[in-house]
Request: fold
Amino acid sequence: MNTRSISKLLSSVAAMPPAQLLRHLLVLVLVLSAAPALRAQEDDTTLRVFIFAGQSNMVGSDSHVQDIARFPPFIGLEKPQSGVKFSYCIGREDKRKSDGWVELQPVEGVVGPELSFARELNRNIKAPIAIIKCAAGGTHLDGDWNPDHPRGFELYPLTLKWVREALADLDRKRIPYRIEGFMWHQGENDMFENGAMAKYGANLQNFVASWRRDLGLPNLRFYVGELCTKTIWGMDLRPSMYAISVGQRQVTEADPLADYVPTSHVGVEIGGEVGLHYHYGTLGQLEHGVNYATAYLRSIGKEQKVVRELKTWPYAPGSKVNLFVLAGHRNMEGERAFVQDLEPLRRSALGRDNSRIAFKYSLGGGYKISAGWEPLGPAGFYDTFGPELSFGARLESKLKGKIAIAKWTHSGTQIIDWTPAGSEAPARNVNPHFTAFVRDSMKELSDRGHQVELAGIFYHLGENDMSFGPYRKQSVKWLESIVTQSRKDLGMPTLKWYVSQQRPTDDESVNAIDVTGELEQLAAGDPNLIHIKTFDLAGQEQKLVITTAGIAILGEMLADSYLKLR
Reply:
């Protein structure tokens, strides 16, 4: 709104009744307060500076630049990004530092989230970008990052000094800039100390306020990354992880300029022995950066959403529709199955939308939700997909009736999160959300006039649970409670559950727990629970995760198990 428009508005309100005048004045205040931010986003010439800080999962620990080639959506990020300025100070004792501003690139073979963050922004905004990164593994907000009483590696004053010097260099070069956001990922180490863990929220609030004060930016926006619950710490330190998340959410929910950025659905490095790990690794770091970019773009109204519209409803009025529900964790979500890999496998047809099958989904525990019913097709976060594509294709080729598919996954959960009782981390209790999703899916089809038959729930047994002894020991009992509760809640005592199981983790620390035998016994006593052994899936290069070829086969095996029982 320009000066002439504002003057016109002011003159027009002079004769208004008091109530109407008040409403117009409120509108005027909102317009005036929003104007600077709106003008800033239209400025494509000023350098936009972002600060990245935190501990090991901000550093990029256990990532390897040569592995980028394994993940098709991110190929090319191993090379410098010539249009992006980068200033960094990374590490604790042995710090790796840039000499002034350099081109954005991996540092000594390590992949950080800034790489994919910058590329995603460059695809969506025209303004130039700069990143200042200071991060060190194993550091505390209560100590190293404490603005008032820094201890240990004293990262708060070090980072503040580094940021100021980098900005001063821009000033000397007369490069106009503005600081757009502060990306923060930290908290794992504070949960090892009860005192630090309990006051994480207060410490984070002080941390945010201190940066705004010290940089003279009262409206500096913060993006706080969730601690990934898919790591081993999300299992053996579940209550502590939850306590940190409570502190983070207290800050982001109370501060309109702070966003909570979910990350539990991203990939996690596969470790030795049982396979569980503490760090995102290469894939997770790249996806981690996309999450920050998405959060930033959303905050400025620039988020790009892919529209997958089901233009024509595929079912005749009053017809019967068989609803198939897919559910589970990282492999049902499709963590490492990429659409770009379908063509080399001669399965490119799976990557095309199929408007003959209505598809509804909630992925990552609600991180991505379909816009109603969409055509069946790839719908993952990062060009990923799950077994639903081959599952739907196989069923359609064999069945005469109409089918619809609904999928609910959260790869950052374990089986305990799906149980009616839940755990010490109540925010991770997905049971009521999953049940509501199934019920709503059926109702939406019924409301369209269809006769709906819930053909079954197809659940892929928790992968992480098979590697962690205490969870593997309880997994079948937990599964039984989930199945029982779903039948009760949905009013379907004979509801069929098709439970697929990949080969359990083979390690002496967990091999004594015969989870396969226990599941066989459960299925033998329940005629409506079908146990599907998927022990020889192609493309399982590492423990826990299945890649593109295996995910495609998994979908076909799930479909075949249903077809055999018809």
